[in-house]
Amino acid sequence: MTVLIDTNVLLRVANVASPDHVTASDALVSLAQSDVELTLVPQVIYEFWAVATRPVAVNGLGMDAALAEGSVEQLLRRFRLLRDERGVFAHWRELVVAHDVKGKNAHDDRLVAAMQRPGLTRLLTFNKPDFARFAAIEVFTPAEILAGRLPA
Question: Which domains, from first to last, does the chain contain?
Answer without folding.
Answer: 2-41+84-146 (3.40.50.1010)
